[in-house]
Amino acid sequence: MQQPVHFLFYRILSLHQKAGNHALVIERCISELKNDPDDWTLWTFLFDSAFERMKEETCSTEEKNTLIDRLVERVLSLIERTHTLGTGDRVRGIYLARLTLITRLLEQQLALRNQLGTLPLGEPLDHLVEYVSMFHAKPCCFTDIRSFVSLLGEHQVEPFLQRIAAIVNDVREKNDTSNEIIAEDVKWADIVCIRLRRAVGTDERMSALEKRTLCAHMVGMVQRCADSDLAAAAYAQLAAHLLWDLYTESEGSVALYELILMMEWVHSRHPSDPLCRLVLCRAYAIIGATAQLQKLMQSLDIKNVQRDTLGYLLFGLLEQYGRFNAGIIYYTELSVLFDQTEKEISECLTTAYKNGNFPQVPRLVEFLSKITKSIIAVGADIQSRALSACFAVEKIEHVVDTLNGDHEPIDFSVVEDNRDLNVIPSLNSGNPSKLIEEVKQRSYFEQVDSMKLRDLLLKCVASIAATKSSSTHMTSLLTQLRKHRDHCQNNYTDSVPQPELLQSPPPIFVGSFVSGAHIPLIDALLSSAIKVMKIIENTNSEGIVPVEEKLEDELPDVNVIEELVTRVAEGDLPPRGSLRMHIRIRHCSLALHTLALASIAVKLIERRLEGV
């Protein structure tokens, strides 16, 4: 299939850029931008090549200054031309290019912040206000300038908000706001203003009462957005952020349940909006409402690849809250999906080789690696083994095979993190992208450690009765388990994780697991199994009675096991409460899972003894 001409042009520019032909890319982009000043891809190529060239040692100071002058001239001349032609309100790219150029110059320390007002590019404050004045009616207005708000100095924040408020008032005066349904540009001007106030940190200085008052305004505006799902969702998102603030800062579960009620109300009025459902998924995950969470995810019509990138919304929750059978089905479906995807990508690779389409091969190989080593794909296999062995498989022979799995040992150091935590946009001040990335990194390590711990537990228990297992092999696995348990105890607290960002994945509670009696119970049974295995291996020539006596001495002490079982079942049982039921359910589910695995270990020890 023939590609559009501009796609081929982008491809050529990309190849030149990779080859280091930055001067050629710069010339091509400057020339082409005359014809299409709103093409953001061309601006990106231009800035990337220009600043890469400036970093090179062969680039003299004179050449740097010339390059900067050319970039400034190109941006300003195109803006002036659009003003002359009267097309400025239809071309956003050049105004964003001006702000981007200012940002890049500051980042590379090629311009000083306090001198911007005297330079041809001008003051960012004026450009941001101009952009809002021109494009406030577009839903994308805030998203366009979100990253440039940080260009404002502290002394400029209040004047900026005053000028934005003046724009909103002017828009309201030009429209009749007495009707039940208000004009579209009035809605979006108001939304942009409130979003910008939050982006510069105004909400952080508000009291709980002030936040509730503002939240009530949002709810009132949702009622006046019957003709626009998008505007209603934007107001609901702002209200959700305010209620989330109250949840994390002062009011706890009460504010969380209010958030759920509000978003359910908005969703019932505007069912086509996906953002409300995503926020509800996040909230329901906290209280363990997994059935409602599954319904919402099904209604989102998540595609195959998105089941990997958005899988974290549900991953680990079904078994956390006692829905073991639903978890088995869910993880089995995920495993089938990833196996099918791997097969399809492999077929695409074969086809690419056959057709000589070699440039596609590296991308397909990279995609295949990301899919097969995905944190969701690897975790789905482990969780499927754990739940199936404990709650589905009846024959003990099949239990051992299920615990072991049918794959090679997992290299947890290469597990890929494909999760998209930005699916719920952040309106917070500062650098939310950086905060979200930090949360993603922390949760990645915790998720991988949790998966490794679970995998070692399964393999240790399976080794009790595996065909080729030995006491040496079991000892090695148990040593690895203890070492990793110590690692988790040192890195994760046993207290309940405090809620972080609205974009954070659901908590995993590794700290609580490794600090309780769960692993000591399994450890005690495994230690006895190793001793039993050693006796069996070393008694080929001994009589039956001595062997039986030795075995009795090495079997687990009933009192010790009983104490550990009691600690697993009752230890740190959370207090009762109407808003705490999910905590008790989570505690009981974890205890039930541990006791099921312990009972399997006992049965496997009995099976070993049957052969003596």
UniProtKB/TrEMBL annotation:
<dbReference type="InterPro" id="IPR019183">
    <property type="entry name" value="NAA25_NatB_aux_su"/>
</dbReference>
<protein>
    <submittedName>
        <fullName>N-terminal acetyltransferase B complex subunit NAA25 homolog</fullName>
    </submittedName>
</protein>
<keyword id="KW-0802">TPR repeat</keyword>
<dbReference type="Pfam" id="PF09797">
    <property type="entry name" value="NatB_MDM20"/>
</dbReference>
<dbReference type="GO" id="GO:0031416">
    <property type="term" value="C:NatB complex"/>
</dbReference>
<comment type="similarity">
    <text>Belongs to the MDM20/NAA25 family.</text>
</comment>
